[in-house]
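Backbone-to-sequence.
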């Protein structure tokens, strides 16, 4: 009987030592922040509640650790045993009143899971304190470590863009989005892991090839200008398949000028596989046609009859940003251009040849701009209609609005225009049928084309016999 009683005293004594060793203050267990996770075994058996810090669950068995920051960010990983449902937090002091950024009380996993704190804003050389306890009223074991996040890639920002070799053939450069951070908002998807490249073409066109690994769903965006004043020329997700090869062409480039490429994974968070390879190859782009803004049809009459609908989007890609009212961008479209001769209101009607066809349109003021600015300068759009209602549509006074979404009406307000201004009109067919349309500017009060016949003003030399 005496032997059993003695054993109980020994167990009690050991448990009290554990609690004292892991109390916040003198004797607290010190962890070392390393490049990788080096687990230290821990237990809350015999510990008593600190009464401060987290109040998630039942704080009756918290234990404490400390570490000296060797970087401005850190990862705290607590791997719980099957009977331990851990709660973890990181504080600036034992008072447990101010949590480190990213170190607020974490209880995301169930018993036997892993709790992770991603700490930021640390001061190198400063000591920080970690609180761990079991959410339930019981206790149990775990391992804990403090590690540094992997370093961001050298081309994490535009200023560190890696130059690609632009030539007649593809010279692949290896890349990764692992540990990359966000530079700016994404053109599509979530650009929380973008990396940068540059190229200097010797021709007016480039083909951008990218081979992605495994689960990576790449987005490729091309910019002109310098890193401090970038202008988006192209944003392409559809051409690059998840974990596969993709390619896209961009024309209208200036040989000898440096351009920038941003690559990121479409989804939030890092993909399970983060590597890819990329190259830039010269190509000679075909000239713009009527389905490109630069090849727009000059308006010289009031009525245009198009017997068969246009298909595709021309030779210049991505001229309309999907942030526009035309949320599908260009779609089976054609462009028209005119310079206002006398001021007044612009009005037109697009009448489908097939009553069920759904035509959409947008008008842009290019008086002081060019076609390439449409994608990046939303203010150039003066009127736009993406109504899902089939039939006649246009800025015909059918409503007081200058912008209609898919649920809007097919009629917009007429557009005031001033002599000397230059406009382009994009007409897109959402229905993708072969039916054409009638475009009629006849209801405009402004004169939008010059109908005065040419005549000789003077002769610079006397003609010979």
């Amino acid at each position: 009987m005496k032997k059993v009683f003695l054993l109980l005293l020994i167990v009690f004594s050991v448990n009290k030592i554990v609690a004292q060793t892991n109390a916040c203050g003198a004797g607290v267990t010190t962890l070392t922040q390393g490049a990788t996770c080096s687990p230290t075994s821990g237990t809350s058996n015999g510990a008593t509640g600190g009464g401060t810090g987290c109040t998630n669950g039942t704080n009756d068995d918290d234990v404490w650790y400390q570490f000296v920051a060797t970087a401005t960010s850190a990862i705290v990983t607590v791997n719980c045993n099957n009977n331990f449902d851990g709660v973890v937090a990181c504080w600036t002091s034992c008072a447990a009143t101010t949590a480190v950024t990213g170190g607020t009380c974490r209880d995301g996993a169930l018993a036997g899971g892993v709790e992770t704190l991603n700490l930021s804003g640390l001061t190198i050389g400063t000591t920080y304190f970690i609180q761990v306890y079991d959410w339930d009223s019981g206790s149990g074991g775990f391992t804990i470590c403090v590690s540094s996040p992997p370093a961001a890639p050298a081309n994490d920002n535009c200023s560190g863009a890696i130059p690609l070799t632009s030539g007649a053939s593809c010279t692949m450069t290896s890349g990764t989005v692992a540990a990359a951070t966000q530079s700016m908002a994404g053109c599509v998807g979530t650009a929380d892991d973008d990396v940068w490249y540059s190229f200097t073409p010797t021709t007016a066109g480039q083909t951008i090839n990218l081979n992605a690994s495994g689960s990576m769903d790449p987005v490729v965006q091309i910019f002109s200008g310098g890193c401090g004043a970038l202008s988006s020329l192209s944003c392409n997700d559809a051409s690059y398949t998840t974990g596969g090869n993709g390619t896209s062409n961009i024309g209208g480039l200036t040989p000898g000028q440096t351009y920038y490429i941003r690559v990121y994974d479409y989804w939030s968070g890092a993909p399970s596989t983060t590597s890819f390879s990329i190259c830039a190859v010269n190509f000679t782009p075909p000239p713009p046609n009527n389905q490109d803004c630069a090849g727009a049809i000059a308006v010289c009459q009031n009525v245009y009859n198009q017997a068969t609908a246009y298909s595709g989007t021309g030779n210049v890609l991505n001229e309309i940003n999907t942030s526009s009212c035309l949320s599908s961008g260009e779609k089976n479209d054609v462009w028209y251009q005119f310079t206002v001769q006398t001021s007044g209101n612009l009005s037109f009607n697009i009448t489908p040849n097939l009553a069920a066809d759904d035509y959409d349109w947008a008008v842009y003021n290019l008086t002081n701009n060019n076609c390439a600015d449409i994608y990046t300068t939303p203010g150039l759009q003066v009127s736009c209609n993406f109504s899902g209602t089939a039939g006649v549509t246009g800025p015909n006074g059918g409503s007081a609005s200058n912008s209609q979404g898919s649920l809007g009406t097919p009629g917009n307000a007429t557009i005031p225009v001033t002599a000397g201004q230059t406009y382009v009109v994009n007409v897109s067919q959402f229905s993708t049928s072969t039916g054409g349309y009638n475009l009629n500017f006849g209801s405009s009060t402004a004169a939008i084309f010059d109908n005065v016949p040419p005549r000789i003003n003077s002769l610079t030399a006397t003609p010979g016999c």
